[in-house]
Amino acid sequence: MPIAQIHMLEGRTEEQKAAVIEKVTDALCEAVDAPREAVRVMIMEMSNTHYGIGGKTIKSLGR
User: Fold this and answer.
1) Residue 63 pLDDT > 90, yes or no?
2) Lower Cβ count inside 10 Å, N or C end of the chain?
3) Is the CATH number 3.20.20.10 carried by domain 3-57?
4) Where are the alpha helices (DSSP H) in 1-63?
């Protein structure tokens, strides 16, 4: 059973997240010949204050 974890910043719409889940599922089915019902996709959202680049939060960098 393939399991994919996707980490991204908050702010995507429900439709965008559904599209990510569908496309990642399609890719895993094709790449490892897994049946769709066996694929799991988890989206882990984080705030822009919980992620940083170069010692600064994404929020402080204006992202």
Assistant:
1) no
2) N
3) no
4) 14-32
pLDDT in tens, 37-57: 999 999 999 999 999 999 999
Interatomic CA distance for residues 43 and 13, integer angstroms: 12
User: For residues 9 and 45, what is the distance between their CA atoms, to the nearest angstrom?
Assistant: 5
Q: Could you give the 3-state DSSP secondary structure of residue 45?
A: strand
Question: What pLDDT does residue 17 have?
Answer: 98
Strand partners, 3: 40
Could you give the 3-state DSSP secondary structure of residue 2? coil
- Annotated domain spans of the chain: 3-57
Q: Which of 1, 2, 28, 29 is catalytic?
A: 2
